[in-house]
Write a structure and sequence with these properties.
Blueprint: H1 7-25, H2 30-51, H3 59-67
Length: 68
């Protein structure tokens, strides 16, 4: 998986994320911030999973294919 982004673009994204998190957290309790952090972590993991390459065929699937 190649990435053609320049490092300055990555730094801008990091800066944007930092500023956004500071802005979002203003006026929230620690519990609310923790809940939002967990939500965005799950969101990010799901986005990464959506673009992940297909996994290897499981042994169960192989066995079913050979029995047909």
């Amino acid at each position: 998986m190649g990435c053609h982004r320049k490092s300055t673009n990555n730094q801008n994204i990091l800066l944007l994320a930092t500023l956004a998190s500071i802005h979002i957290a203003q006026g929230l309790t620690s519990d609310q911030i923790e809940t939002l952090a967990a939500f965005f972590e799950v969101l990010g993991d799901n986005l990464a999973l959506l673009i992940a390459p297909p996994c290897c065929i499981s042994p169960i699937s192989k066995k079913e294919d050979t029995e047909s």
